[in-house]
Design brief:
This protein has 280 residues and is of the alpha+beta class. It is 42% helix and 20% strand. The strands form two sheets. Strands 1-8-3-6-9-10 form a six-stranded antiparallel sheet, with helices on one face. A four-stranded antiparallel sheet has the order 2-7-4-5. Helix 7 crosses helix 8 and helix 9 packs across helix 10. It is globular, with a radius of gyration of 19 Å.
Amino acid sequence: MKRLGDPFIEYANFPGKTFIHFMRNPNPVENRAPVITPPHYQMSAELILCDGVRGTCTVNGFSFDLEDRMVIYIPPGYLHSVYYSSGDGDVFVAKIEPEFIAKYIDLQKVFSFDSLGFESFDTLGGDYDRVLSDIRAAADMKKPLFERISRTLDIFAALKRLESGRRSARMTDDLMKIIDWTEEHMNDRVLLADAAAHFGYSRNYFCEKFRAASGDTYLHYLTLLRVSKACRLLSHGKTVSEIVSECGFSSESYFIRVFRRETGMTPAKYRSAHTDGTRI
């Protein structure tokens, strides 16, 4: 599974192996700044539950506003990003690991028998409390295995309503390679023309392909990755000059300008507010 390297919110570094990994993310008020998860993908299925938080989610290039008591389902292999702009409510993220569930029940056969699948992404209305309760129970390692499997199936029963949801193809292998390569080289001086040439594309085709899949430009995506890492380094006391060197920014003045544009505060103010090691 491909994880985002250094996101604004500490991303999916869950211990152990279980059906469902579950965590609560900081909201913008707790974080004292917008919370941004740059475009990324993973091979697990993902549920995002938010209430009392505003912002935008983009899945495979399709953007929609966050609403109260919203449950967002994102299938495996879908490129997605989230921008939490304001609000003091809750943001929960759950990742469902089909390969671990398969040790006990063959979901693919069950889905095939009922003509279901993972391949629709959409939002659930009216199921927030039920889905959140099922996720908590399925992720609770203290509960009996039978109950955890049962509650996991209850989650999929709620997802059954998504058959008429928005369908789109998973990312192609070449787009996954672009994401992986960019995360690996984000600290280097990456030029748009060089990135396109590396994958054998013209600059225009490369830009159109990436934006169609992600809903964002390639250069802004790269900037978000760098600012994300900068946030982590600032929260651990790194200086601006050290961050410029470690995150691929061309100069201190450019870094400060970009950082303020993306987070709404200067690097110095961010460091002062997050010197306890917290990060966005």
